[in-house]
Specification:
Elements: H1 3-29, H2 31-42, H3 48-71, H4 79-111, H5 116-141, E1 147-153, E2 158-164, H6 169-202, H7 209-234, H8 241-251, H9 254-272, H10 293-299, H11 313-320
Antiparallel strand pairs: 1-2
Helix pairs in contact: 1-3, 1-8, 2-9, 3-4, 3-9, 4-5, 4-6, 5-6, 6-7, 7-8, 7-9
Length: 321
């Protein structure tokens, strides 16, 4: 590699690092997100969803800032240390993906009336994906023969950059089951929504706004993860330096920003409706599967809709009043 090409790559790396640092710093200090986190996480009883939120929130921020500090051109890091850092980052991204998928599984569990059978099926089918991720990180990212760091030395500059030493086919093969599992989750979410819409149409009722929101966010995350998988695959195809750096910028920001924001957005919308169950754990709130209170008043006593444990809407409102 000539000195001109090395300088070109270093400038791109520095520019992307500045953009990454700016975006993640704003995300961490964003006032609405911080206040919402204090309100819906720290000031409420702990639940599985709040724990998952904290993991994806701060693990994502840590990984992104780790990239900036170690690969942002702030100081020189030797080749051997740079390789170990990259391996840690790739394993950390896989851990983040597992927790993000756990959020999707828990949402589907809540939407489907806490069906234990469905939860067992989703978790059981996800375990092979976890094993595949471990195998992928070992085979693709933990072997210098496949993924390595090379030091570029010119008369004026010296820095390290990563190198993909094999073609994109292994990455394609390992990403197919992950994408198929995400397709399965989004189809299940869409089928749940379709069944819900059909039931509401029979009773001439409006759809549950929370269920529509959750399925919409579920689909949005599916598109995000699909895009991320595609970008991670094309990195192995020896694409030009600008395309590689832009792909890295997307992969190091969007998944870490979007997942916690979608959780907070659902909680905030839920709290705006002044639901008496807003402080209950995510999966235990009846709002995900039952009609909101203003819809129940419209129904009156004509349609005896039943909640879990055999409690009817009318009896609940009688107790609340």
């Amino acid at each position: 590699m000539s000195e001109e090409e090395a300088v070109f790559g270093l400038r791109w790396n520095d520019s992307i690092s500045v953009a990454l640092f700016t975006v993640m710093s704003y995300e961490y200090q964003y006032s609405w997100l911080l206040s919402a986190q204090i309100k819906y996480v720290w000031n409420r009883p702990w639940s599985l969803m709040s724990c998952l939120y904290l993991v994806v929130r701060y693990l994502g921020l840590s990984l992104a800032m780790y990239v900036v500090v170690t690969w942002g051109g702030m100081f020189y890091i030797p080749e051997s240390v740079s390789y170990d850092i990259l391996v840690v980052l790739e394993w950390g991204a896989s851990v983040y993906f597992c927790f993000a998928e756990a959020i999707l599984i828990w949402r589907l569990y809540a939407l489907c009336n806490q069906s234990k059978l469905l939860l067992y099926v989703l978790v059981g089918s996800f375990l092979p994906i976890v094993a595949l991720l471990i195998g992928t990180d070992v085979y693709l990212y933990s072997r210098p023969h496949a993924f390595s760091v090379k030091e570029l030395v010119t008369p004026n500059i010296k820095y390290c950059t990563f190198s993909f030493n094999i073609g994109p086919m292994p990455a394609i093969y390992t990403s197919i089951p992950i994408v198929c599992y995400d397709v399965f989750l989004v189809i299940l979410a869409a089928a749940t929504l379709v069944r819900h819409l059909k039931e509401r149409r029979e009773y001439r009722m409006r759809p549950n706004a929370y269920m529509v929101m959750i399925v919409r966010y579920h689909t949005l995350y599916f598109v995000l993860n699909l895009t991320n998988q595609i970008l991670m695959v094309i990195l192995w195809a020896h694409i030009p330096t600008p395309a590689m750096n832009l792909s890295e910028l997307f992969s190091d920001t969007m998944p870490f920003i979007l997942a916690p924001r979608l959780i907070i957005s659902i909680w905030d919308t839920h709290a705006q409706d002044d639901c008496v169950y807003s402080s209950t754990p995510f999966a235990d709130c009846v709002c995900w599967t039952s009609p909101p209170r203003f819809e129940q008043h419209e129904m009156g006593s004509v349609i005896p809709l039943t909640w879990r444990d055999g409690v009817s809407c009318e009896s609940v409102h009688h107790e609340q009043s």
